[in-house]
Design a protein that fits this description.
The chain is of the alpha/beta class. It is built from twelve helices and 25 strands. Strand 15 (395-398), helix 8 and strand 16 (434-438) form a beta-alpha-beta unit.
């Protein structure tokens, strides 16, 4: 994610579409993914829409989805997305992987298009970690499809207990077991699932005590502290104005940043950067030269030959908390020269990480990933299981600029993409810290590769993106401060020079730290149905208090967000008072309460009783 050519900025989540809202009227949406447990129904796809609503195939076909759950519970209904020409009587079914039909359904009272739902003839108990299949018969074809969606493994639309792990089909006019595979396609078949109990629906984040294993990161063991970084800066550069401090290290510290991720030309050349960062109270995760590709796109990394530990000792390095090993090895384009060339072999990344660990076992290793780990994009040479990338890494960082990236399909963009990326990364990096990059209002402002009229990210969108990432499993944030000016070189410290960006960073960082104890706590699923914009939510308990944290996002039909009315279902049928961050009191009865959101607004509801 070093400043680079236009090709390297492309980190599109190809084959994926974002959770979308097909109606902005009074009809409640199906529960969005990532929000449902303890008596609240949940789905995999929520209101998401396919890239192709009606594939041009008129043949009668049974379409299916393979899925797993992280929680035990009951499947009560089957869903599918209907496009133009997908007519006739639709039949649904639930199967085990051996082809035994577990239950069936007939769809009735369908609408002309969009999501359809039918109750199974009896509910089916499912177990965590076991693969099941749901299907429906499209007698006239013209089914929804997104080709190659599963090339990168499971498709994740939110942080809920259900995960789609593959598609399937069978030809013929009668419903059949969908055991066929074609191009890793996704057919937008879904189920309605209710978990048996309220419990964690995501792999728990690394506990704050995780950091105690390294002397350099013991300070990060504070549950009330969240790592907040900025990408690839030189802290010795004079601050843009004297009010920001003597240098950019102090300027970033004033914005709430506490970590520098990457330093220009370090460790090959040192310009007192580590000492400058330390003087400003900033930790440093650096070593960008350790694994940098040649312009040809090869990987002539010399990690094993770089005496990084000795280099760190030479400069004092009191502020050197860890090492940055590589940038976007899942795209093989860390410097923008090899976009689309495929993935760095995971065994090679493992060897590099092992080398650093041997040279200096006293510091963690960070790798920043792109759309492979964060979105399932799979180029040549990518591993079937992206957890092979995260396994040897101590800190898992991920970037996808879902608001302004000009190379992503429109349906996959938006604030909502930040929640999806955080959730997927958490799933492929269980037990590891997950840091998510955020874009700033100045990042794509006047960029030559931004479509004419495309607005920059607004401060409200940036704030909501941070909330969406944290709600869905991020335990750290990072800022991409560069901007890509039209016709000129990138400005690497642009966010310090742009008042809107500096203000957004300051407010987001302060708010993230205010609720850090919750973000560091294990998540528990909560049910939510919405009218208007989608809302994503989580339940966390910290310091003996339980809070529901939620944020309104956006959808294909609401690309700049909009108001939302959300009804939440809490586990255990909680009845009692909830106090909001803006001083209001709400009442939950039998586990349910309702509240409203303005566009991109977050809310925090503190319960009188501890749950979860």
């Amino acid at each position: 994610m070093r400043a680079r050519t236009s090709a390297a900025l492309a980190t599109a989540l190809l084959g994926l579409v974002a959770t979308a809202c097909t109606s902005v009227g009074p009809v409640p949406h199906p529960p969005p993914p990532g929000e449902g447990a303890g008596g609240a129904p949940t789905t995999m796809y929520g209101a998401a829409e396919p890239l192709t609503a009606a594939f041009p195939d008129p043949a009668a076909t049974t379409l299916g989805v393979r899925f797993t759950s992280t929680l035990p519970g009951v499947v009560s209904a089957v869903r599918f997305f209907k496009g133009t020409g997908n007519t006739g009587t639709h039949l649904g079914a639930l199967w085990d992987t051996e082809g035994h039909q577990l239950a069936r359904a007939t769809f009735k009272d369908e609408t002309a298009a969009g999501w359809q739902q039918a109750e199974l003839d009896h509910p089916v108990k499912i177990q965590p970690g076991v693969t099941y299949l749901a299907s429906y018969l499209a007698p006239a074809g013209h089914y929804a499809a997104t080709q190659n969606a599963f090339d990168g493994g499971p498709v994740v639309y939110g942080s809920g207990p259900l995960t789609a792990v593959g598609g399937g089909f069978a030809t013929g006019a009668t419903q059949a077991f969908p055991g066929g595979r074609q191009g890793n396609s996704e057919y937008f078949v879904d189920v309605v699932f209710t978990a048996d109990r309220a419990t964690g629906h995501l792999p728990s984040p690394a506990a704050p005590q995780y950091w105690a294993k390294w002397p350099t990161t013991k300070a990060w063991s504070d549950q009330d502290r969240l790592p907040i970084g900025v990408w690839m800066q030189d802290p010795t550069t004079p601050a843009p104005n004297s009010q920001q401090g003597p240098d950019e290290a102090h300027a970033f510290r004033a914005l709430g940043v506490n970590t520098l991720v990457g330093l220009w030309d370090w460790p090959i050349d040192d310009h007192a950067q580590v000492k400058a960062a330390e003087a400003a109270g900033l930790a440093v995760v650096a070593g960008g030269k350790a694994c940098d590709p040649a312009p040809t796109g090869g990987w002539p990394c010399t990690t094993a030959d770089l005496p990084l530990a000795a280099q760190a000792a030479r400069v004092g390095a009191g502020g050197l908390a860890g090492y940055l090993l590589a940038d976007e090895p899942d795209l093989n384009a860390p410097n923008g020269s090899a976009q689309g060339a495929g993935c760095l072999p995971p065994e090679k990344l493992t060897a590099f990480a092992d080398s650093l660990h041997r040279q200096d076992p006293g510091r963690p290793v960070l790798v920043n990933f792109g759309s492979g780990v964060g979105g399932g994009f799979k180029g040549p040479g990518c591993p079937a299981d992206f957890s092979q990338y995260t396994a040897p890494v101590d800190i898992v960082s991920v970037d996808f600029y879902g608001i302004t990236d000009p190379y992503s399909p429109g349906p996959s963009k938006g604030v909502r993409s930040y929640g999806r990326v955080a959730a997927r990364t958490r799933m492929v990096a269980p037990g590891k810290p997950v840091w998510v990059f955020l874009e700033t209002p100045v990042q794509m402002l006047a960029a030559s590769r931004t479509a004419a009229g495309t607005p920059a990210a607004s401060p409200a969108q940036v704030r909501a993106a941070a909330w969406a990432a944290l709600v869905n499993g991020a335990t750290g944030l990072e800022w991409f401060c560069h901007s890509f000016a039209a016709g000129g070189a990138p400005v690497v410290d642009a966010c310090l020079k742009d008042p809107a960006s500096a203000g957004a960073i300051t407010s987001v960082d302060e708010e993230a730290q205010r609720y850090a104890a919750y973000w560091n706590a294990p998540p528990v699923a909560v049910g939510v149905t919405t009218e208007g914009a989608p809302v994503t939510a989580t339940l966390r308990t910290a310091h003996g208090r339980t809070a529901l944290l939620a944020v309104a996002t956006d959808a294909a039909a609401l690309p700049t967000g909009g108001p939302a009315k959300a009804t939440f279902t809490l586990p255990g049928g909680y009845t009692g008072t909830l106090r909001t961050e803006d001083g209001r009191e709400l009442r939950a009865k039998n586990g349910k309460f309702t509240d409203t959101f303005t566009a991109y607004q977050p809310h925090v509801y503190t319960l009188d009783a501890r749950l979860g």
